[in-house]
Amino acid sequence: MPARHEGKFPVTLIPGDGIGPEIVESVLEVLETVGAPFSWEQQVAGMAAMEKYQDPLPQVTLDSIRRTKLALKGPLTTPVGGGYRSANVALRQTFDLYANVRPARTWISGGRYEGVDLVMVRENTEGYYVGFEHYFPIEGDPHAVAIGAGINTRAGCRRIAEFAFDYALRNGRRKITIVHKANILKALTGVFLETVREVGKLYEDKLAIEDRIVDACAMQLVMDPSKFDVLLTTNMFGDILSDLMAGLVGGLGMAPGANIGKDAAIFEAVHGSAPDIAGKGVANPNALLLASCMMLEYVDEHATARRIRAAIKAVLTEDRVHTRDLGGSATTREMTRAIVARLAS
Ligand code: ATP
Q1: Ligand 1 pocket test: which of 271, 322, 333 has the largest number of ligand atoms within 8 Å of its C-beta?
Q2: Atom of ligand 1 at shortest range from CA of 23
Q3: Which of 26, 15, 23, 36 lies closest to 340 in space, CA to CA?
């Protein structure tokens, strides 16, 4: 667990690439306004780190996270070519951040659905993201055959299951849906289903537990998200379904995520570096701001997180300040100013 130093939690701050620095600046201003108990150790990763250290994930950044055990991270771009792995995936693997928590809730009414309130708990270190991929060349075609293998372990399934059930109880949720494809990927996702069901037996009296095949789940989420509460699934299904869930509530600009392990936690927006709008000052800072609220809750600063969420809600629904992705024309600065004004009033 992170510890306070002179009253504050040291946090590794990674502005990231693309729109990262713009939204990070906005989040820092809001956190400053509410007096959030964080002190920042700024470090680089992604393209910014390539420029400075010729390494997308430099040792100084890793050392900083190892020390602080907490990071707030803007989106990172992985350099194309040169055999670099995704810096995001590498961070999750390095710190064994096995739980990815991605909430999706309605912030502005009038969308496709009202009152959506879902949480994806995604296994974050196993499955198809382990990087076991190969090509076999045949007759001069170097890519004649491609092979990709996934790995799920009993221990990995058990710890994400325990995390998800505990998370559901701590957060007053009512139901967990286990999402899998055990009818086809019988071993890979079969072990997940089997293990999670087994862990679930200890929680049966406190939570409703059901399971769905991933394709049916995708359809049902789109047709009626109110049928779901907390979803628990393997790495790649979780990645795909959490974007789908973000789409149900107005897109990636409002979608936060937390990557949590035993020894460290990294908070981020679900979206990427959005190169198409980088530098234009029009990005929605709320995904990262909501991620910072998750970080506040992680260090038990629940009241401050609630205050920020209430200010965001008021700005979106009463002041009707909306960035472009939400159908408005407000800039990042205007959105930030409106949230700060709400917090100061
Ligand atoms: P990357 O390769 O880094 O994942 P990408 O462009 O493939 O980048 P995203 O960065 O997630 O994927 O962006 C997808 C779309 O959503 C883009 O059109 C982008 O402009 C938009 N978008 C993402 N984040 C935001 C945001 N915070 N505010 C407004 N629009 C956003």
Answers
A1: 271
A2: 27
A3: 26
Domain segments of the chain as ranges: 1-95+263-345, 104-251
- Could you read off the pLDDT of 103-159 as tens digits, one per residue? 999 999 888 899 999 999 999 999 998 889 999 999 999 999 999 999 999 999 999
Position 210, amino acid: E
Tokens 């959030």, residue? 36
| Binding site membership of 277 for ligand 1 (Cβ less than 6 Å) | yes
Question: Would 1-95+263-345 and 104-251 be classified into the same CATH topology?
Answer: yes
Which CATH number describes the domain made up of 104-251?
Answer: 3.40.718.10
Let me know if domain 1-95+263-345 sits in CATH 3.40.50.720.
no
**Does residue 200 line the site of ligand 1, with CB under 6 A?**
no
| CB of 103 shorter than 6 A to ligand 1 | no
pTM for this predicted structure = 0.94
CA of 253 to the centre of ligand 1 (A): 8
CB 210 within 8 A of CB 175: yes
Decide the pairing of beta strands 99-105 and 117-123: antiparallel
Task: Compute the distance between CA of residue 307 and CA of residue 293 in angstroms, rounded to an integer.
Answer: 9
Ligand 1: nearest atom to the Cα of 275: 6
Q: How many Cα atoms sit within 13 Å of 133 on the Cβ side?
A: 9
Per-residue burial over 75-112, b if 16 or more Cβ lie within 10 Å, else e, is bbbbeeeeeeebbbbbbbbebebbbbbbbbbbbbeeee
Catalytic residues: 129, 181, 215, 239
